[in-house]
Q: What sequence folds into this?
């Protein structure tokens, strides 16, 4: 395709996240439209397709990928279904935006890595959308200027008002801290080499048996230390903050001071209540950037390597949570494709 | 047209603002494309058109408006050229987004008002883009909830790092405070009835003879008082702030606390250096909202009445600046079309 | 006395403010003690004196001033009683700290000015305690460095949760804005030459008939413009803010960001509920500075001239409130004693 | 003594800290004066004494403690000299304010603990002055209300512009983190049971061989986790921050937003450059509170137990720094005197 053509996207998975991406591609992203939706629930797929002009509903991802009017694939199905869809897309050399996690574990991520390596060029972008959040982008840009010197430490806060019923103690690492895994690697430009997880007394507001909050400490191959407070039943809202401490100064994002009110004895502002509110812009920009790059024949976002490394760190983190102590992260050698 | 069709826009004026809108419609706005560009400078029009697929260059606005592939018009030419273009578009019943000011004075704005009134339905949206800025939108939404009670006062700050060479003392009112004129009317939902302008000693950094800063006080028909500090050679950046004081509390926007650094003995953040930086999002959202509404056959943004009222207030403001004292604003009766 | 002696103070007036000053001198100020208290209510004076070692109760200020163990006088009686006490103290050449206002009007202030001028040296300090507030002190110090260039505008906010029952529309000027009168003169180092008062629609929470809020505009002999929002029934707390706009930058105090909480969907902090909370430090420092200077035989704080000028500006302000329009301030020539 | 008498204090040690306390007692604290100063350097002691009325210079602490005009002792000599002075004061049953550290190690602190226990009542207060800082006081008061629920985590930042030449890697723990040791114990009301120290790559601005920064993690007997970033060559200033994360919300102090400027493309404020600036108020209030309580015959501040526990935690911290891994803290049983 040439960059003047509209990108025709097959969206795989029409749950909450997939349906939101359909809305985003149709109403917000310039130069792209949804030509196919896929869901094992045929009725749900049809219902979504019916609201979009020129959109066909499928139940099988591979069939959708062979349709004439599909140029690219957005994977928003459940994590365990990602690997098959990714391999099928790579088999057809189709550009992919795959929601995080790339796959649920490092071994399966490695198989996707191997498939793309064999293909010989990058086709897959992983949905670490924080790299498109305007605040994180400014922070990264400031670090890149070198004004602050080299980063030594990174403090992260990741708070949710409440966790969904199915959430487990391990998911605080593999689902939530997964974002800070990528943020740490991306902001610092370093790989994570060891993980330690501390277990504060659980909050009285956490569901019975859930280890919430947790305090995670990363060490990196560049000698930096990053910490993550993950607290998914903090009660007061959704809040994501990061402070990078460098040799000559620090920079902090996430305080969210857009509007300040004085009322009833207090000054301050509101806290976002969920990630779709806090990161709405990031998702919009992620999809626009992906569509733009794809139309130019490029992949510019987080790679399969990034998805694999995050999976490997999260696996080590879950072991550290379970066994206690410090767990080292083992990565395969980085292929030249991701240099 | 139906809402599934892509909106084909003729952009009139390809100076800095017009060219920026072309880029925005092509690269950011979903569901719209530029099919025509118009400029009295034929070479400039051709150069812009050459970078856009399926875009024709014109030197005459009316010719462009009669083209088959033009569904709507965006006017970004110089202020004095607006009236003719607006009347031509209304003559052809074409939807219009017209950059501010609607026209340079209240009398010409009234002629446009009359033309649209005769047409019998609204077609024109005026480019008061602050109504699409996320911070102003949140402020307006908060006021609409009634939590703070009724607004009593509004404090505005409007600061530019430096004014362009052609800027006159009158333009601080007619060009800069014009924004606060609309912001005041929109946030309070009231008309401005009188203007007073105070003239502090000019800054040593203002060009010789320029009355900069100025301090403007508005009174409204709802009994509110609004003040505007306009300072177009403040030196340190572009800064727009507003605080609404209501019966039970206040709300302030524009502090811009996105990223906070500690460095060299100071904490804080950077200040935007011009309006394209501060209001980039507002322009994106304005054009997306206009394209969406236009495809649905609606006009939802600031009206010709808003453009006329702003012009009338600015005329009174310029008189107050020149003559001193308090100048009353006279408006014609508001036509039912704008009720 | 020599600076090693403890300063023995007669406190005139043992109402809320006077009793608070007694507590302050006894428990907080170094190098001073209360040796006499005076109140027309003999029982109240005795009750206060009984709590302080070596303190005598009086009903007549002049008798107290002649006691052997009185080195200095603190006047905290009602405003109309100030003149007689001030003249008696000047007659005995005693150092005085006089709570604001110096006297209730410009004419009586002039009589005190004349008495001190005849005495030939300064003895009286007026209780404009904001000059001792750490934030105002930092603001003044920054202005003095010249880093920001010359001041052009000053924006003040002065908000009280609720006004006492006896408060009148005129008292918003003469009692509340009196502070900003002094702040403006002191920060800018300029005299106020004209006052305009705008009258927004009163808040539904203001007592019937009270013009609250008001918006006051000062012009100065240095060409600066200062505005004051005075709102004594804002409901949410006690809040005092000031922003000075200079040729190369601005500085703002009063945001009060000491502790930030996240709770129940909001971030932010508490707002002080009254002036004794917000300005507790300022009163402590004011009295310590007065005691220190007095023991050295000096007067370093706001002078009788400052008290007189504030009274003259407030009188003009009350006229502007009543009559509308812009009212000029007339001051007598400044005596050399206050150069 | 009765509370109406002035407290006569012997200040032991007239180095920078001791001389500052002399100035504070003489000029700021109400109800106290310096009657004796002690220094092994006789000339230095004499020079300080000469500036204070009625003050005698000594070279031997014990001799000073036996003087008729000494009611209480302030120990500001070097750490290794504390034990002897403390034991001598306890021997004479004199009230003591002892600068931190109580003594350089846990064993010597235990000996002081034992001496006070035998005496049978508390006489010693340790100089953990942060407990008197207005921001920490507000934070503690908020925690005490229970509004935020129980504390789960505490994040501390402790940054110095540059370290003195004699500073060692161990002193980052024993001298700097010593403060957070007390802050953690005091704010949470829990004992620290284990310490882990992470060692980021040292900053290029740290002196050769100094492990700076460090990242310290405390675990407590109440199940909380506290972390401390200690960075003594951060370059940009002196900055102390704390955020307590509780079951229903968080509270943060130390952002220091007193005055905000806009200048040269940046908004923000200045950062204190050393602890005497940041904690000037805390020292003033600490000494006033100590003088007030002592005159009432009470000890209300941090106890010998607090000094001992801090020493024990710091010893464990130094071991954790040296040996790596997690080191448990062993405390003796808490005597009833400190219940």
A:
């Amino acid at each position: 395709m040439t960059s003047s053509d509209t990108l025709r996207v097959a969206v795989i998975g029409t749950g909450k996240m997939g349906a939101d991406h359909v809305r985003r591609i149709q109403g917000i992203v310039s130069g792209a439209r949804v030509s196919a939706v896929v869901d094992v629930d045929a009725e749900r797929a049809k219902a979504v397709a019916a609201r979009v002009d020129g959109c066909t509903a499928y139940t099988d991802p591979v069939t959708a990928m062979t349709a004439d009017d599909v140029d690219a694939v957005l994977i928003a199905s459940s994590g365990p279904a990602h690997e098959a869809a990714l391999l099928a897309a790579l088999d057809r050399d189709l550009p992919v935006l795959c929601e995080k996690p790339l796959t649920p574990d490092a071994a399966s991520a490695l198989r996707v890595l191997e498939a793309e390596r064999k293909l010989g060029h990058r086709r897959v972008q992983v949905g670490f959308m924080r790299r498109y959040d305007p605040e994180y982008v400014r922070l990264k840009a400031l670090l890149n200027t070198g004004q602050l010197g080299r980063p030594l430490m990174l403090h992260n806060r990741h708070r949710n008002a409440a966790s969904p019923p199915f959430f487990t103690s391990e998911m605080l690492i593999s689902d939530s801290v997964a974002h800070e895994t990528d943020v740490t690697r991306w902001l610092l430009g370093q790989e994570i080499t060891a993980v330690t997880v501390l277990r504060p007394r659980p909050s009285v507001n956490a569901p019975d048996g859930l280890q919430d909050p947790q305090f995670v400490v990363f060490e990196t191959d560049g000698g930096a230390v990053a910490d993550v407070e993950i607290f998914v039943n903090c009660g007061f809202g959704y809040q994501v903050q990061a402070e990078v401490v460098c040799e000559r100064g620090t920079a902090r994002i996430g305080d969210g001071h857009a509007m300040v009110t004085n009322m009833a004895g207090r000054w301050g502002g509101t806290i976002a209540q969920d990630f779709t509110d806090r990161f709405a812009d990031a998702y919009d920009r992620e999809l626009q950037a992906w569509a733009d790059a794809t139309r130019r024949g490029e992949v510019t976002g987080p790679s399969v390597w990034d998805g694999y490394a995050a999976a490997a760190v999260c696996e080590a983190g879950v072991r550290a949570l379970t066994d206690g102590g410090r767990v080292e992260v083992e990565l395969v050698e980085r292929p030249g494709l991701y240099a």
